[in-house]
Amino acid sequence: MNVDFVEYPDREMLALILADKLASQLGQHLRTNQQASLCVPGGTTPAPVFESLSATDLDWDRVTVVLGDERWVHGEHPRSNSRLLRRHLLKDEAAAANYIDLYTGDATPDEALPGLCARLEPVFPITVALLGMGNDMHTASLFPGADHLAAALAPDAPPVLAIRAEGADEPRITLTAPYLRNAINLHLLITGPEKREAFERAQKLDPLEAPIRALMDNLTVHWAE
Ligand SMILES: O=C(O)[C@H](O)[C@@H](O)[C@H](O)[C@H](O)COP(=O)(O)O
């Protein structure tokens, strides 16, 4: 386990400094590579980071953005993570980024898997991955108790899997642990005392109980009250 825990004075500072860090890691990669990839979480926490990142001057047309997971709802649904990205990240400077939408419009996420595996191939290894985490210690859609959790944590997992879990309101699609873990730069964004406590607890648990534990090999955690 190799975790670097960074504590910020407040959420605003966290968003500004973290966005700057993510952009500089992408920029550094683009100095010696034609393309970079950025994997981001959905949920309620990352919007301020996205706002700051979207205004950053970067060769966005050489960056491919992908979500770590998507809820299986159409792109205008209030729970769609793509909708969140279009509103807060894929605009201003970052409007030039290439975006791979995990929601394909197929009736179920299972049907989308073969096509997505092929489309996602160029994004690996992910240059910069930002993760979120729930109080139940899930990350992306790797939920404790999920139907395909063991398969999604396995070292030979495919890049994406369909997930159904009690803690998730709808079927999901998720990048799997080995593909997230393999990111060149791996970050976790959490706020508030409950998530800090959950993260600390997860360090002592098995990934099947606390899936975030599977991603703690080379992880920088960004936290503010
Ligand atoms: O689609 C999702 O729900 C996610 O990508 C998920 O992994 C999220 O990052 C955590 O659930 C934290 O969510 P909050 O930021 O809303 O607490």
UniProtKB/TrEMBL annotation:
<dbReference type="GO" id="GO:0005975">
    <property type="term" value="P:carbohydrate metabolic process"/>
</dbReference>
<dbReference type="InterPro" id="IPR005900">
    <property type="entry name" value="6-phosphogluconolactonase_DevB"/>
</dbReference>
<comment type="similarity">
    <text>Belongs to the glucosamine/galactosamine-6-phosphate isomerase family. 6-phosphogluconolactonase subfamily.</text>
</comment>
<feature type="domain" description="Glucosamine/galactosamine-6-phosphate isomerase">
    <location>
        <begin position="9"/>
        <end position="223"/>
    </location>
</feature>
<comment type="function">
    <text>Hydrolysis of 6-phosphogluconolactone to 6-phosphogluconate.</text>
</comment>
<keyword id="KW-0378">Hydrolase</keyword>
<comment type="pathway">
    <text>Carbohydrate degradation; pentose phosphate pathway; D-ribulose 5-phosphate from D-glucose 6-phosphate (oxidative stage): step 2/3.</text>
</comment>
<dbReference type="Pfam" id="PF01182">
    <property type="entry name" value="Glucosamine_iso"/>
</dbReference>
<dbReference type="GO" id="GO:0017057">
    <property type="term" value="F:6-phosphogluconolactonase activity"/>
</dbReference>
<dbReference type="GO" id="GO:0006098">
    <property type="term" value="P:pentose-phosphate shunt"/>
</dbReference>
<dbReference type="InterPro" id="IPR037171">
    <property type="entry name" value="NagB/RpiA_transferase-like"/>
</dbReference>
<protein>
    <recommendedName>
        <fullName>6-phosphogluconolactonase</fullName>
        <ecNumber>3.1.1.31</ecNumber>
    </recommendedName>
</protein>
<dbReference type="InterPro" id="IPR006148">
    <property type="entry name" value="Glc/Gal-6P_isomerase"/>
</dbReference>
<dbReference type="InterPro" id="IPR039104">
    <property type="entry name" value="6PGL"/>
</dbReference>
